[in-house]
From TrEMBL:
Organism of this sequence: Casuarius casuarius
Source species, domain of life: Eukaryota
Annotated TM spans: none
Coiled coil: none
Protein name as it appears in the record: ARSJ Arylsulfatase
InterPro entries to which the protein is assigned, alphabetical: Alkaline_phosphatase_core_sf, ARSB, Sulfatase_CS, Sulfatase_N
Gene: Arsj
PANTHER family: ARYLSULFATASE, ARYLSULFATASE J
Residue stretches making up the Sulfatase N-terminal domain: 53-365
Keyword Metal-binding: yes
Family: Belongs to the sulfatase family.
Length: 559
């Protein structure tokens, strides 16, 4: 309870100290947006709400749970604070612990075990992508008249052209295909000698945009251009997947101004990156108002996973970090801001997962969800907008059958129901169960960032008794995962293990192929991009068929 009190106190202090930005002081007053539209040739009243809302989904990269003003951070995020305060804060909201898994679940509404992406991320050199037989959110929105645009980080594979964003439902794409890269040069080395350029406009390298502009600002400018050129009376879906605040830690100099006092260089750079991101979201919101979208818009903000303390991120007071199934890896900053919300200025503590956006947004867009699509997400709009109970009672955080096995895991430790050597995690109502090797499990308090370099001296280190491969927590009562209840409640453990076993029966095989040497950008004009040629495969197949036919003919002659 002390930790909760400290967190709440910091949050209040943050809001009192920094306050909220006023839209009037930063942009357009009443009537000015209408005048701006009229000046651009739009008819007055173009922003009048239609039946299909404009949907803007903003995905931050590696933002820690604590790294927002209203969670008590020392980093100023006045835009995020204001949007969240006027909307609905999601305080029981879950994503996946890494980039690709969260993005795949958002765009398909399916758990990783149902797309084959349950292990790690898609690497640049792997012949892998989101399976082509999965229907995507933009494809469903296009069916009901939406214009669909993606700006930012894809990270769902690109080894063949059919995997590219423009082939998966987006009318336009501007951004990067890989998981990370230089914010200014858009250059990425996957390993020594395997380096290339990674900035695309639709299906081609965007060399013309290579002007050394910081990616957060460049992506925002692109969003502004899209909004300025689109008719606000026609529904639009904007997926803005910012690169920030993922490493490498880079930011324009002016954003360091308020953070000179932070000694830890990684935390200081991270703070500057987040400050720039906050300003970018302010500019996106102002553009929505200026060009007549705002009154009929739904803005959703989410991080893709927890923060990485070694790269400046903080998940305090949660346990663990990015890449783990502790709360610090999967519990995310999230909120919905919209004039269409019924309960504005509220907090939603109902269970919400990133897969829920797929059915929720399709329903809001008046689209149809095919009966043969086996979704793992739920329509949670009434939960968010009206404060009703969530239809969701459980979350399969993941089952990864090829992750490093826990040495002491066994079927016996899992009561003959489950092999506890396997990395898995599941939430059912208040209970959360983890098995196998859940990952780095320290609590990293703010003091850990007090020195000039990375410092684990202040971390609360965990040394479990040898052989432990099962953990049980009551997350509602113990969101910081400090009291393991697995020994006290063996019947609950058994029930959750059975649920894991049931989920596992529906899993598809893992897709994690070895690297393909043809992926080297040197073989593709110095650019990361599709390298798999369907024609080559077909020719090879045809050639083999020809050889086989000739062999059969020779056999017949011999006979």
């Amino acid at each position: 309870m002390l930790a909760v009190g400290v967190l709440a106190g910091l949050s209040v202090l943050s809001l009192l100290t920094y306050g909220y930005l006023s839209w009037d002081s930063l942009g357009f007053g009443p009537g000015e947006a209408e005048a701006a539209r009229t000046g651009l040739g739009e008819e007055p009243g173009a922003s009048a709400p239609g039946s299909q809302p404009h949907i803007v989904f903003i995905l931050a990269d590696d933002q820690g749970f604590r790294d927002v003003g209203y969670h008590g951070s020392e980093i100023r995020t006045p835009t995020l604070d204001k949007l969240a305060a006027e909307g609905v804060k999601l305080e029981n909201y879950y994503v996946q612990p890494m980039c690709t898994p969260s993005r795949s679940q958002f765009i398909t509404g399916k758990y990783q075990i149902h797309t084959g992406l349950q292990h790690s991320i898609i690497r640049p050199t792997q012949p892998n992508c989101l399976p082509l037989d999965n229907v995507t959110l933009p494809q469903k929105l296009k069916e009901v008249g939406y214009s669909t645009h993606m700006v930012g980080k894809w990270h769902l594979g690109f080894y063949r052209k059919e995997c590219m964003p423009t082939q998966r439902g987006f009318d336009t794409f501007f951004g990067s295909l890989l998981g990370s890269g230089d914010y200014y040069t858009h250059f990425k080395c996957d390993s020594p000698g395997i380096c290339g350029y990674d900035l695309y406009e639709n299906d081609n390298a965007a060399w013309d945009h290579d002007n050394g502009i910081y990616s957060t600002q460049m992506y925002t400018q692109k969003v502004q251009q899209i909004l300025a050129s689109h008719n606000p009376r026609k529904p639009i879906f904007l997926y803005i997947a910012y690169q920030a605040v993922h490493s490498p830690l880079q930011a324009p100099g002016k954003y360091f101004e308020h953070y000179r006092s932070i000694n830890n260089i990684n935390r200081r750079r991270y703070a500057a990156m987040l400050a720039c991101l906050d300003e970018a979201i302010n500019n996106v919101t102002l553009a929505l108002k200026k060009y007549g979208y705002y009154d009929n818009s739904i803005i959703i903000y989410s991080s893709d996973n927890g923060g990485q303390p070694m790269a400046g991120g903080s998940n305090w007071p949660l346990r663990g970090s990015k890449g783990t199934y502790w709360e610090g890896g999967i519990r995310a900053v999230g909120f919905v801001h919209s004039p269409l919300l019924k309960n504005k200025g509220s907090v939603c503590k109902e269970l919400v997962h990133i897969t829920d956006w797929f059915p929720t947004l399709i329903t809001l867009a008046e689209g149809q969800i095919d009966e043969d699509i086996q979704l793992d997400g739920y329509d949670i709009w009434e939960t968010i907008s009206e404060g009703r109970r969530s239809p969701r009672v459980d979350i399969l955080h993941n089952i990864d059958p090829i992750y490093t096995k826990a040495k002491n895991g066994s079927w016996a430790a899992g009561y003959g129901i489950w092999n506890t050597a396997i990395q898995s995690a599941i939430r059912v109502n208040h209970w959360k169960l983890l098995t196998g090797n859940p990952g780095y499990s320290d609590w990293v308090p703010p003091q850990a960032f007090s020195n000039a370099g990375p410092n684990r001296w202040h971390n609360e280190r965990v040394s479990w008794s040898a052989g432990k491969t099962v953990w049980l927590f009551n997350i509602t009562a113990d969101p910081y995962e400090r009291v393991d209840l697995s020994a006290r409640y063996p019947d609950v453990v058994k029930e959750l293990l059975r649920r894991l076993s049931q989920f596992n029966k529906t899993a598809v095989p893992v897709r994690y192929p070895p690297k393909d040497p043809r992926s080297n950008p040197k073989l593709n004009g110095g650019v990361w991009g599709p390298w798999f040629k369907e024609d080559e495969k077909k020719k090879k197949s045809d050639k083999n068929k020809g050889v086989n036919k000739q062999k059969n003919k020779n056999k017949k002659k011999a006979n």
